[in-house]
Specification:
2 domains, 337 residues, alpha/beta, Dihydrodipicolinate Reductase, domain 2, seven-stranded mixed beta sheet, six-stranded parallel beta sheet, Rossmann fold, 34% helix, binds (2R,3S,4s,5R,6S)-2,3,4,5,6-pentahydroxycyclohexanone, globular
């Protein structure tokens, strides 16, 4: 640790929190994990083992009172975000908040109100796909209009399995939440409406889930986005997009691991989890957030983006019951321009 390192408090030491602790300790420059905020003692202890010198706290308030951190990375489940965001904003600390900002638009709005009491935005939301090199390349291609206008995005979002805690609504609020951020970011237009269709159910999925689902997202500029949201594919983790232009097609997210020829077969390595599929994107996201903190700025999706996604999630959850659900986005506060 050097004297100028940003002292990060990681809140939540589950799968993503633990992954961020290792990332910051081993791969991020200019930062150190100085505090772990985690009520589960075993998890906290294991996270501290990977972050030499870090102190464990069970509440964010205690870490703040002890002056144990300069910045906060929130990796708890979304329903606990607001209770960490509000004190962290009050302390005027840089914040990287894993998606979703909060689970619903009313609480997200409260967070926006609290943030607007400060001189500038402090919250960056963890939509890591924006930091994936292929997504960035596709966005540049769309903006260049080299292949004409974008007309459609055809997306596949596939998980091998999901944990027992995963509910039907989480198809939208935990998984599709990423497409609600990244599709408008790629296409340069907000979401106008959402519709959900049900193909034949995967009989191998847990009984509580009616999936896969096919989601149709219409953007304000007329681009139509379809997403196969499929969380029981067993074979691997895939997030792929095909962009259909007026005079060309572009594809990203295809398997890109080792190619093997053996026993009369050709195969390509693929991922089993978002932790490896997006590892480089997570690294880039955290590094850019750390670097931006030094300039008193953020460098990625802000809380207003998080709010718009919260509106889309609400509409998406209601579209699970059938019909097309329109979204009404209020005017963007000047603070976020
Ligand atoms: C998980 O929480 C993520 O954020 C992953 O990116 C997504 O693919 C998965 O479906 C979610 O459960």
């Amino acid at each position: 640790m050097t004297q100028n390192d940003l002292r990060i408090g990681v809140v939540g030491a589950g799968l993503m929190g633990a992954d961020h602790v290792t990332r910051i300790t081993e791969r991020i420059s200019g930062a150190v994990v100085s505090a772990i905020v985690e009520p589960d003692a075993a998890r906290a202890e294991s996270a501290v083992d990977h972050a030499p010198g870090a102190r464990a706290f069970s509440r964010i308030e205690d870490a703040l009172d002890a002056n144990a951190l300069d910045a906060v990375l929130i990796a708890t489940p979304g329903r606990f975000h607001e209770q960490v965001l509000l004190p962290a904003l009050e302390a005027e600390l840089p914040i990287l908040c894993e998606k979703p900002l909060t689970p619903d638009s009313t609480s997200a709005w409260r967070v926006l109100e609290a943030e607007q009491r400060l001189a500038r935005p402090h919250i960056q939301v963890g939509f890591m796909r924006r930091f994936d090199a292929e997504y960035a390349e596709l966005r540049a291609l769309i903006a260049s209009a080299e292949l004409g206008e974008l007309v459609m995005l055809r997306c596949a979002h596939r998980n091998p399995t999901v944990p027992d805690t995963y509910t039907q609504q989480m198809l939208i609020s935990d998984s599709l939440v990423h497409e609600f951020d990244v599709a408008p970011w790629l296409a340069g237009s907000d979401i106008a409406s959402i519709e959900v269709k049900y193909p034949r159910r995967n009989s191998l999925s847990p009984e509580r889930l009616r999936e896969p689902i096919l989601v149709l997202i219409e953007l304000e500029n007329g681009v139509l986005v379809d997403v196969e949201m499929n969380v029981g594919v067993q074979f691997g983790y895939q997030v792929a997009t095909e962009a259909v232009f007026e005079k060309g097609i572009a594809r990203i997210g295809q398997p890109s691991g080792m190619q093997t020829w053996r026993d009369g077969r050709f195969s390509v390595g693929d991922h089993m989890s978002f932790v490896t599929r997006f590892a480089r994107a997570y690294d880039a996201q955290v590094q850019r957030w750390v670097d931006a903190a030094g300039r008193l700025a953020i460098d990625g999706p802000n809380a207003w983006d998080g709010y718009k996604v919260a509106l889309a999630c609400e509409a998406g959850v209601s579209a699970l019951d059938g019909g097309l659900v329109a979204i009404d986005i209020p005017p963007r506060p000047a603070f976020y321009r």
